Prior knowledge:
CATH class: Mainly Alpha
Strand content: under 5%
Distance between the termini: 65 Å
Number of domains: 1
CATH topology: Cytochrome Bc1 Complex, Chain D, domain 2
Number of strands: 0
Order of helices and strands: HHHHHH
Helix content: 40-55%
Number of helices: 6
Structural class: mainly alpha
CATH architecture: Orthogonal Bundle
Radius of gyration: 20 Å
Amino acid sequence: MRASLNVILIAVLALAAVPAVAAPSDGAALFAAQCAACHGAEAGDAPAKSDLAKRTPDEVVKTLTTGSMQYMAAGLSPDDIRAIAVYLTGKTPSAPTAPSAPHN
């Protein structure tokens, strides 16, 4: 009995030591949290989501990483940025996504 408990304990500890795989970024949730206030249904002066959807995924990525929206996207990971681009356009960006870091 004690030997089987030791085996179970070792198995549990081994599984706990395996690093968790990060869940893929959810473009819809990220857009809702980070972008929709300005680009949602009541877009105002900002381009509406439907207008952003007409862009290529690479244009969306570029705008978020080095363009006019880099300051708004400063806290997003490269995977988050790609997820937003895929969500908006329905296509995968061809270029690798560099981290968003505003330049001074």
